[in-house]
């Protein structure tokens, strides 16, 4: 069974929750050669995170950002502030949401549900 390890780069984005599924898959043409497998997508960042969520209605990304900002407010008196007021909330969101996804590969494609896509939270 073949193994593939590849580092990809996502385009820089402003703060928020962004659907990045097409950008990720577009950088992995090797997927089409795999009948069965698992894709581990790992984000090398400490104040951003990855999640699987709805890919159809962009209001979901807006609501996700609003909800997480309510749970992890910038106005909290954080001690770690050297990199700006949004840095420590980003670390907390990353810890809560996570930085990796495991997605089954079936017949050359990521086997996600009809309404599922990979989202980047920055």
From TrEMBL:
**Recorded superkingdom:** Eukaryota
InterPro entries the record matches: UPF0047_YjbQ-like, YjbQ-like_sf
Residues in the signal sequence: none
Q: Which is a Pfam family this sequence falls into? A: YjbQ
**Sorted alphabetically, which SUPFAM superfamilies does this protein's record hold?**
YjbQ-like
User: Could you say which protein family the record assigns here?
Assistant: Belongs to the UPF0047 family.
NCBIfam families for the chain: TIGR00149_YjbQ
The name of this protein is Secondary thiamine-phosphate synthase enzyme
Query: What does the record give as the organism's lineage?
Result: Eukaryota, Fungi, Fungi incertae sedis, Mucoromycota, Mucoromycotina
The encoding gene is: PARPA_06923.1 scaffold 25125
